[in-house]
Amino acid sequence: MRKLNVAMIGGGFMGKAHSIAYAGMPMFFWPAPAIPQRKLVVDVNDELAQTAAARYGFESYATDWRRVMEDPSIDIVDIVTPNDSHAEIAIAAAKAGKHIICEKPLARTAEESKRMLDAVREAGVKHMVAFNYRRTPAIALAKKYIEEGAIGKILNFRGTYLQDWSADPASPLSWRFRKSVAGSGALGDIATHVIDIARYLAGEISEVMGMATTWIKERPVQSGGLDKLGTVKATGDVKKEAVDVDDEISTLIRFESGAVGSIEATRNAWGRNNFITFEIHGELGSIFFNYERRDELQVCFSNDPSDRRGFRTIYTGPAHPYGEALWPIPALGIGYTETKIVEAHDFISSIVNDTEVSPNFYDGYRIALISDAIIASSDSGKWTKITE
Amino acid sequence: MRKLNVAMIGGGFMGKAHSIAYAGMPMFFWPAPAIPQRKLVVDVNDELAQTAAARYGFESYATDWRRVMEDPSIDIVDIVTPNDSHAEIAIAAAKAGKHIICEKPLARTAEESKRMLDAVREAGVKHMVAFNYRRTPAIALAKKYIEEGAIGKILNFRGTYLQDWSADPASPLSWRFRKSVAGSGALGDIATHVIDIARYLAGEISEVMGMATTWIKERPVQSGGLDKLGTVKATGDVKKEAVDVDDEISTLIRFESGAVGSIEATRNAWGRNNFITFEIHGELGSIFFNYERRDELQVCFSNDPSDRRGFRTIYTGPAHPYGEALWPIPALGIGYTETKIVEAHDFISSIVNDTEVSPNFYDGYRIALISDAIIASSDSGKWTKITE
Amino acid sequence: MRKLNVAMIGGGFMGKAHSIAYAGMPMFFWPAPAIPQRKLVVDVNDELAQTAAARYGFESYATDWRRVMEDPSIDIVDIVTPNDSHAEIAIAAAKAGKHIICEKPLARTAEESKRMLDAVREAGVKHMVAFNYRRTPAIALAKKYIEEGAIGKILNFRGTYLQDWSADPASPLSWRFRKSVAGSGALGDIATHVIDIARYLAGEISEVMGMATTWIKERPVQSGGLDKLGTVKATGDVKKEAVDVDDEISTLIRFESGAVGSIEATRNAWGRNNFITFEIHGELGSIFFNYERRDELQVCFSNDPSDRRGFRTIYTGPAHPYGEALWPIPALGIGYTETKIVEAHDFISSIVNDTEVSPNFYDGYRIALISDAIIASSDSGKWTKITE
Amino acid sequence: MRKLNVAMIGGGFMGKAHSIAYAGMPMFFWPAPAIPQRKLVVDVNDELAQTAAARYGFESYATDWRRVMEDPSIDIVDIVTPNDSHAEIAIAAAKAGKHIICEKPLARTAEESKRMLDAVREAGVKHMVAFNYRRTPAIALAKKYIEEGAIGKILNFRGTYLQDWSADPASPLSWRFRKSVAGSGALGDIATHVIDIARYLAGEISEVMGMATTWIKERPVQSGGLDKLGTVKATGDVKKEAVDVDDEISTLIRFESGAVGSIEATRNAWGRNNFITFEIHGELGSIFFNYERRDELQVCFSNDPSDRRGFRTIYTGPAHPYGEALWPIPALGIGYTETKIVEAHDFISSIVNDTEVSPNFYDGYRIALISDAIIASSDSGKWTKITE
């Protein structure tokens, strides 16, 4: 069985998620398209890199990602660093002929994203951007229903991504709150997942109206480079600095198909944790999903008899997308791990079978265009068309 | 105990709701502020009016609402007719010195609403507009929490009103789909309830961005004047006419306080019936409500210990607003009737105690201004300020 | 239109519920089978009786229920007193040729219940016992599905009735905690509702295994005769007396059909308010209901395609039982009032049309037999057959 | 860092679950107590064993589990075979001085389980039985609340495990329906998980009343040895054989503490997939859990103010048990994998730190005693005490 050597750049929580995906993928998808080998991991210093190798099961480690590009044994570069380094690493990897999977958002801006897209296209390598949530079986089931025409022509897509890990002003100023590193705030970090899902399920977005807000205007400076995701609160006499990105974004949306919708994302929603929801109204039915209860998809078919019509709560399992590979009955439990295992599988399949995978850098670029348009619209107060 | 004589103009489903409210109010609120007497009901012809009197327990009936104004024994005029007659009846009633409760929306336009407001102010009568949903105990509980500061300064209000009774294109063209009668579609009929709730809970709205859509552009002409609410589908070779109102409305909203939000309403949401929801994010907590599960309010307090923090599902009962008057334990069951009983109580109290009740014609007028601005914004594609 | 004169014995919270049902019934069910006239109300003293008449809209009042039996104008006797007086009043009413509706449980014991049943049978009057919850539209819909064979042969019925209004030991010792008045505790007060639903949906019960518990063994003596349902807590130096009834009951059940099941009821379930639930597994499907979300019935049909199978959440409305009479769209709101309006309608229909209504005194007697058997089984530790 | 060599006996779906747990454990728990090495996997024939090694990442494979016992490099024996081989393998492993983790139920009977317990005690090795569900963070959180006294003395534990994967009579007769292999049916396979949770949270069970049923009395004989969990339905002219185990079990329970309860498990609950639920009523609060929504625990504290009391929906995350090790925010997603990773961690910790882990073979033996008593009670119709 073919093996593909992976070099992973970055060793934070996303490194953990990607590592277990590589380890677990062949266990779930068998026969596997190829066996990913955790060959080399890169982190910012020797100690962190060595630890990452031991912890995540990589054969070796390094502190300079450039070394990866020179190593001909590496097939895949996996980028799990903060957003500001995505472009440089990805372009170098493309030039070196590596297949690339890059964490989301693809980059800080559409311009950066476009350069990355150009690079992978020129190099002819496979590329993927890690909007993993669409690989939740229930979301893939929504896609299946839509493709089968089960809810008819889509009229409306209404999506949210609500969190509260940084709703407390004492939550530190990690890189996610710095425009120079992150590009944007709730928009790039979380709203882009919903934009990805919207495009996946309802088609291309043509025009947006945005309203961005920064509720918490300064936060305690964080010592160390780690992204603590709000679990450590600053106390005592702390130094604060300005937040220069949005922490809430509201939009109205028009799709190329004529459908309309809205996407809202905030990090200030006390009680919401990873509240990725969407509701789709079609001419023949509706679909509702909430990632916090991700084993379930709710769907209503208008052609059910009127005395038996209502949302069905479908627990995904063997009868649904990815179901044969995952667990033998529904509700044994889809976790974050499983979404990443499916993602790893589909990426590696695209390499082995020389096919396109989605979402790829083009999708990442489109999402960056939409993100930039949302900010522009928020600034101008005007509807803004998406143009490449 | 004082008695107040009621004349009700209109005998449709809303007539039923108001009638049981008058009958039931003293049973629930005791001692009652006054006992409403169902004195006279008016409907469009003799047969309908006679039936309405027998069915709804009125002492007498008439076919011309003008007769009511000449009858000095009538204290209260209750207007439950389609929207196009609200202004004429209400202005006449005000001139005749009657206290007025009028179904929502107050009128077809802000201009009509303003004339009604001017009339009741000039006459010095009590006036109320029947946005009953805010009298659901769980919504009143949300108000109480907000006033107590329990969720802090409000950042965001996100409301929906989703229905499906006319999602089928075979559903008839009742007056609710004719601009000349209704003024607007989903906007006036249902979105205004959410606008009322938004103002009630989050304060005055200063600016709106609207996107109106008419998905079903023609419907079967309906024989008879009844408002069938979609339960009777047209079949066979039916004549169709154009729908000239919206059936879906999406908005972004800015409040005077600086809070932001969105309100969406549609009649094309298969599987949603009377899906009035709102979620409010404050600096110190969040509130969620869904009228389809109206006995419950969900609230999250940020100052709960981190290992015990989460949305609390509060079932309203004796410990909550209106609870002493309603049922002795939570979840015995709040229905539409109970919201109307509370409304009748508060209106009659305002007469007896000579106090202002809310929502009144001024609130109705403000909501009409907001509605007109939403349509104007939808037409222009621009943010529109609310100005009297 | 025919009128039927009602005398109501008792003026507590159940008096309220029955009164609004009489007032509202013709408003909802039109043409009504007859118009109930609130003629006479009886309470324990002059002040209470006079207040009840004013509050509940009765024409006159009395303090001795025997007066009712001598009044030939009275057609219906409505018994809403504590359990210990049901038998005496009902037997007298039967002898006087009155039709009778009696609050549940029918009496304190099967023996008492049998005497009541014998009396109404001998008198040939109509009789009903007010297990109103089965008239919740969603429960009637469950019955319809079962009768249509939609879930096949029933295998299992699992019911609960959980409350917390007396979970606090400071909650007073109302008559509901005295065996001499109530007959039993959670069993008679709440479990009997679920037994009624079980018989209604799954057929006759043949054998029971019971386990009764009294967690709170004494409570503060309550001043005054009112049944406060736990809303007033005793404070300070209060006198306590023993509770001599169960406050929790667990059972296993065998039905005549061969189906099995369990019923559990407790007043010590913090956070549960009026948590009447049942889940039924049939060979071809399942049904779930929770009264706290009573507008909904959940049903799963096994013959749905495997990729679209799951519980459907049906919101009851015009397409479902009683729907034409109630509200024009689902989720406008079924409350306690509506269940009582349907009950009043069906009882009055049985009088006008000379038909049997269910649950009647025979059902009440069977439920009393089952209740007595549960207590006997709990005492003996043995399965106990139900025998008349 | 210390390494521990694992030999896994069996390569079915449980083999997958255990393998990803070994691979992922150090990624989540860092520093790990030791790094488990997937050394050797055993399956019934060469092809299956070779495939298991490649798929699950084991260094080598074998077809005779006895070989494992002779290999001194093996530290841990992991038994994931059908129930009838647990005792023989475990006793041999104990004699060989291996630490043992064994899938549940521990064995077919209490007698078998006792011999296993004696063997591990005599050998002084570490032992665990893989009732993994109690390691769901939300269940561990329930334990924490109980230990902190947050819900007071426990009055009632009500548990269910409902599934539908074999509700269809065409679902094949896998080993799970043969008493000679499985020992019992729904009881051993699924009810034991709830018994484990009941003992974990509410303490030792002293007495049971059981009612066992076999609804589907014969099933198609299955070709091949695989346990298909009902995903492949038999069609055409199939040979059927008798099912000699229960497919539904209902019980009443008494705990040593005086608490009471019930446990029910069935494989015939259409629409329920992995519906492990429990509700616990304590003197000061209640807890509810449903594994199908496993990221959540619901808890009600009676000492909340009466206007703010209700079930809190707690999404487990970093502030809760195992939270530091798992994902950085709640609701990223706990799946089956995560429960197995925690299990692997706690087992390996017990070896490294020479401590007892729970549930161990003693727990497995107690659960087997309870299971045997449930069957005995069902046969006799009498309450049955648990005696070693």
TrEMBL record, chains A, B, C, D:
Superkingdom classification of source: Bacteria
Protein name: Gfo/Idh/MocA family protein
Signal sequence range: none
Taxonomic source organism: Cohnella yongneupensis
Domain called Gfo/Idh/MocA-like oxidoreductase N-terminal: residue spans: 4-131
PANTHER family linked: BCDNA.GH03377
Annotated ranges, domain GFO/IDH/MocA-like oxidoreductase: 141-287
UniProt entry keywords in alphabetical sequence: Oxidoreductase
UniProt lineage: Bacteria, Bacillati, Bacillota, Bacilli, Bacillales
